[in-house]
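Quick review question:
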């Protein structure tokens, strides 16, 4: 023991002090980047010392591993860059969206890379690359120049010290979570990071994934949730058998999820030259409407559509988790498309953005869609100044889906025009709407850009409803904003007193329906719509329609969700009745009708080509020029004998092949 004390006094004490000071410094930088203010960061440390010490200790535990190396300073810098990298990434992300950086974002890196040029200028990207190169060069220099420990490392004693640090860190965090100083569940991810610190919160998003197993999970508990005979005597749900499919009225049902769409006049201290959403406002008054509580702010579109279609709250999952990126890539799940198929509906998804974004081209087959029309299957695409597709082309896509089947259709449409990043300088020369009252120049230009995109989306809503008014079949249109835009809105900034988790929905129809205003959660919206139409199809819909006022409603909803996705599927008799669909990309067939050689060039004639159409040969994508919806030019030499084997593939921005002609 005396030898250990002497070793600590001689070698470790000063270095441990240095490590702790470095840990404090790193955490201060991380919190400053997250809050965009050194003053607020210091205030966080002073006002929440127990939370701050928890985050500092986590960093301290990481960089203490540097004691295992002879080149300690070099190791300290490299290990310190781990939490710093998280902090820098989080700061950059928070400058472009309202949702912090989580471990789940690593699964979105491919998607993020595909839209990085939309968020950042070329100069910014060049500077980032130069910065990374400088760090690599600096690390090499540091490795060569940094002093090397000139004595033998007493590994047993160093490891003992590191373990003590780890145990102290774990103990402090354990005590703080038990006493409520630190949260283990974040109802609001952004607030969770702000209240609990970046490093701890990031760690929680790594550890907390999926839906937690219910405490008393068993066959009896799950089957006991339904007690009114909705699922028959065995209390096991069998699609079709336990559904009332004898429904008289089966109108076409269209969901329109509008990207970042809200009424901009809901925000305090910002005024506009004219009403940005006159048509939407008119419809709010004339048709069933209310506030829709969504699980996201500033980002997270996929989780909103997940809730609406599955009836499952995204908050049952770990903070920052996207089921589209995890469980739904592997498993089928009961969802609205499967339910409507029981009633004979055709099921279609439409999105004027990349088909592979959030794995939609794979996930939609696991939740029951027949077709998926994404940007790669659309022509005449107009773009915003920030390079997002405008929504006006969606009217044509919806009509194509409606006309693709003889019977009724369920169509889930996801728009993209309102997407950020919103510029902080003027980019629209002659805007239809100007900002007449604002707090800063940056706010002025961001809101002016946003208001003009929303204004055009509002015109699209009018065009769509006017078109559907004259459609010769009954149509119900449910539309809503998926979340607030990434414009730093807070509860205090909302003029109508609403939550930042609330958008507004409208239930429009071209036939008479009773007006019913109510506020509702996104995951309950579909069961409410089906209830209004007299439809009782799908286990989750039955539960929400019949047990919404039960005292254990939310608890049992989570238990059913766990059983469906992670448990033994007791509610389905320990089977999975939902089979993956043969998802067709696009409702229009892409066809090759002829291959013509003119001079030295080959031309492929056909139908429904788009700018994403590429000639392929035995799976290899060839250099192709899009000349129009009926003709492509091949810019490669090929053997004339191979011409008959040429096909056309739809290839998205990241070179992923979405479909190939037969």
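Suggested answer, residue by residue:
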């Amino acid at each position: 023991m005396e030898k250990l004390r002497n070793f600590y006094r001689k070698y470790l004490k000063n270095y441990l002090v240095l490590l702790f000071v470095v840990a404090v410094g790193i955490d201060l930088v991380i919190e400053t980047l997250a809050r965009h203010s050194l003053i607020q960061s210091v205030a966080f440390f002073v006002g929440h010392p127990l939370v701050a010490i928890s985050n500092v200790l986590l960093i301290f535990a990481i960089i203490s591993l540097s004691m295992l190396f002879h080149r300690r300073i070099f190791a300290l810098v490299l290990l310190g860059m781990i939490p710093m990298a998280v902090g820098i990434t989080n700061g950059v992300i928070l400058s472009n969206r309202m949702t912090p950086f989580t471990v789940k974002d690593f699964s979105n890196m491919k998607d993020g890379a595909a839209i990085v040029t939309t968020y950042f200028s070329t100069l910014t990207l060049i500077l980032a690359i130069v910065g990374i190169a400088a760090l690599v060069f600096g690390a090499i220099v540091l490795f060569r120049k940094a002093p090397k420990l000139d004595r033998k490392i007493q590994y047993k004693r160093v490891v003992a010290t590191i373990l003590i640090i780890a145990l102290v860190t774990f103990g402090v965090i354990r005590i703080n979570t038990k006493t409520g100083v630190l949260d283990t569940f974040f109802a609001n991810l952004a607030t969770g990071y702000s209240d609990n610190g970046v490093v701890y919160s990031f760690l929680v998003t790594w550890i907390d994934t999926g839906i937690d197993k219910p405490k008393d999970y068993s066959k009896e508990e799950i089957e006991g949730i339904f007690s009114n005979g909705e699922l028959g005597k065995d209390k096991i749900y069998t699609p079709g058998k336990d559904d009332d499919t004898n429904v008289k009225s089966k109108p076409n049902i269209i969901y329109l999820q509008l990207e970042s769409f809200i009424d901009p006049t809901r925000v305090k201290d910002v005024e506009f030259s004219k009403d940005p959403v006159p048509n939407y406002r008119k419809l709010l008054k004339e048709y069933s409407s209310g506030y829709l509580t969504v699980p996201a702010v500033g980002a997270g579109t996929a989780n909103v559509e997940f809730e609406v279609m599955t009836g499952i709250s995204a908050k049952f999952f770990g903070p920052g988790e996207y089921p589209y990126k995890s469980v739904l890539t592997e498993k089928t799940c009961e969802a609205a498309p499967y339910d409507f198929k029981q009633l004979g509906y055709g099921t279609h998804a439409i999105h004027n953005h990349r088909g592979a974004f959030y794995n939609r081209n794979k996930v939609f087959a696991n939740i029951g869609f027949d077709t998926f029309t994404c940007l790669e299957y659309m022509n005449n695409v107009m773009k915003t100044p920030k390079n997002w597709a405008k929504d006006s082309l969606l009217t044509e896509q919806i009509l194509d889906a409606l006309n693709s089947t003889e019977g009724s259709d369920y169509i889930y449409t996801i728009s993209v025009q309102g997407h950020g990043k919103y510029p902080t300088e003027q980019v629209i020369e002659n805007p239809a709407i100007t900002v007449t009252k604002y707090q800063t120049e940056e706010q002025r230009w961001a809101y002016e850009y946003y208001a003009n995109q929303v204004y055009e989306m509002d015109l699209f809503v009018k065009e769509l409803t006017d078109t559907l008014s004259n459609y010769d079949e009954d149509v119900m249109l449910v539309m809503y904003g998926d979340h607030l835009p990434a414009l730093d809105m807070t509860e205090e900034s909302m003029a109508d007193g609403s939550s930042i988790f609330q958008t507004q929905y409208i239930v429009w129809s071209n036939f008479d329906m009773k007006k019913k205003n109510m506020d509702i959660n996104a995951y309950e919206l579909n069961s409410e719509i089906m209830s209004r139409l007299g439809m009782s199809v799908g286990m989750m819909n039955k539960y929400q329609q019949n047990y919404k006022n039960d005292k254990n409603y939310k608890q049992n909803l989570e238990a059913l969700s766990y059983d469906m996705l992670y448990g033994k599927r007791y509610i389905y008799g320990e089977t999975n009745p939902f089979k993956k669909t043969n998802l067709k990309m696009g409702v229009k067939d892409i066809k090759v009708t002829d291959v013509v050689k003119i001079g030295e060039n080959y031309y492929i004639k056909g139908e429904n080509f788009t700018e994403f159409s590429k000639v392929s040969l035995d799976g290899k994508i060839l250099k192709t020029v899009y000349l129009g919806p009926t003709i492509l030019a091949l810019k490669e030499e090929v053997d004339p004998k191979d011409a008959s084997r040429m096909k056309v593939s739809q290839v998205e921005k990241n070179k992923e092949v979405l479909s190939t002609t037969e």
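Why it works: DSSP finds 19 helices and 19 strands in the chain. The longest helix spans residues 2-35.
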